[in-house]
Structures are given as C-alpha cells and as structure tokens.
Design a protein that fits this description.
binds zinc ion; about 230 residues; Four Helix Bundle (Hemerythrin (Met), subunit A)
C-alpha cells in the first residue's frame, strides 16, 4: 500500500510505501465499591511504518483517537503524530504565515542547514512584523520586542547566533550551519514562539476553566442554600 506524504528526511512529497502497521487498544474502567469494573471508554493507537522511495529512510506515524472525543456525526476525532524523524509541527496556535515558515525550517533541518537557517530567519522576521517591530535588521527588531517585554529577555545569550543567521544565511555556506548550531537556533525559535503565541493562549484557557469552575461552585452553593 502507498500513501502520498511529505518525507521529513529528504523533504520530498512522494508516494510512501506502508511497510507495516499495528493497532493497539487500551480500555478505561470505572470501579465500584464491590470491586466490579465497568468499561467506560477506549483509547486507540494505530502505528504506521513507511519507507520513502526517494531517500529510502523510514517514518513512523501514530494515529490516535478515543471514544471520548467524536464529531456530532459520531465519527471519532483523530490526530496523527510523526514520531520519527523527530520534528515539531505542533504549533497550531501560530499565525499561518509564521507557522508555514517554521514548519519549513523543521522539514529541512535534517536536510540542509543553510536553508533551515534561512527559514528560521524568515520565521523570526514574520513574527517581528506581526508584533510591530520596525528595526533595520533582525537583531534590532528582536531587541525591540525584548525591550517591550513581548519576547523573553534571553536575547543577550543568543545575540551571536542571531547575528549569524542575519548575516550568513543570505550568502549561505553549509559549513557555517552545522547540526549543533541549527539545533540551538531551532530551540531558540521554539522558545520564542511558545512564549509569544502559545503561552498566552494556554493561560487564557486556564483562566476560562477556572472561572467556569467558580461559576459551577457558586451555582451549586446557591442551589444547596435554596433547598
Ligand atoms: Zn525521503
């Protein structure tokens, strides 16, 4: 069986060969005081093992679903994760142009260091624009955002790296972008994006959950005092 997928080793979108798959089901039980166990739902995992016909390397995906989350139609909601090679495409909270640039960087990280650095720079440039920074180069824009408290003050440690991607990525030389440097740049970008776009959303969600809870408790109290 073949399926069209992007290979995160070589970057080609191609007909990947499904070599093997495996399904796993986990049942969740509720217990009563007499020791009886009642199944209340199931978690499903399906693993897919693919081989890329272009570079011959392997990809492992996991499709997850459970009986607790379904569409109104009854169809289960599922998520597909790429477990191998290790890439991060989970940044669903990013504005689409920034997410696209960041995913491009992730996709080529194992393939071409210089191109990955250019994609990282593009990601950061787009974020700076989105957040209204107006400096003359990437470093001054990031500095501006750091001074305004929009990004965390970790820039001083990273300034050499940022100047590197500012200056060198344009006239790219593979030797300058070895694996440890790319890894640091991606980590840095990851932290910044998390801080700027993901954390505020998570905090908002937490606040809403807390206020929902408070409302529920208050309603319960009113009911109890009324009866
Ligand atoms: Zn490939």
């Amino acid at each position: 069986m073949k399926e069209v997928k992007v290979c995160f080793h070589c970057g080609n979108k191609t007909q990947m060969e499904l070599i093997n798959n495996h399904s796993h089901t986990e049942t969740e039980y509720e217990f009563d005081l007499e020791g009886g166990a009642y199944p209340i739902g199931e978690y499903y995992e399906e693993y897919f093992f693919y081989q890329c016909p272009v570079c011959n390397k392997f990809t492992l995906e996991c499709k997850e679903s459970d009986t607790f989350s379904s569409f109104p139609s009854g169809e289960l909601i599922h998520t597909i994760k790429t477990l191998y090679p290790a890439i991060d495409t989970s940044k669903n909270r990013l504005p689409s142009s920034i997410r696209a640039a960041y995913q491009a960087a992730q996709k080529v990280r194992n393939i071409d260091g210089a191109i990955c650095a250019i994609a990282i720079r593009r990601t950061l440039e787009r974020m700076c624009k989105d957040k209204g920074a107006t400096g003359r180069n990437l470093y001054t824009k990031l500095k501006q955002l750091s001074d305004k408290g929009i990004i965390p003050p970790i820039l001083d440690d990273m300034s050499i790296l940022i100047k590197d991607i500012g200056n060198q990525a344009a006239h790219a030389d593979d030797a300058e972008f070895d694996e440890p440097l790319i890894r640091s740049l991606l980590k840095f970008t990851d932290i910044i994006l998390e801080y700027v776009y993901v954390l505020p959303y998570e905090i908002k969600r937490l606040q809403l959950t807390m206020s929902d809870r408070k409302k529920e408790e208050e309603e319960k109290e009113t009911k109890e005092s009324a009866s």
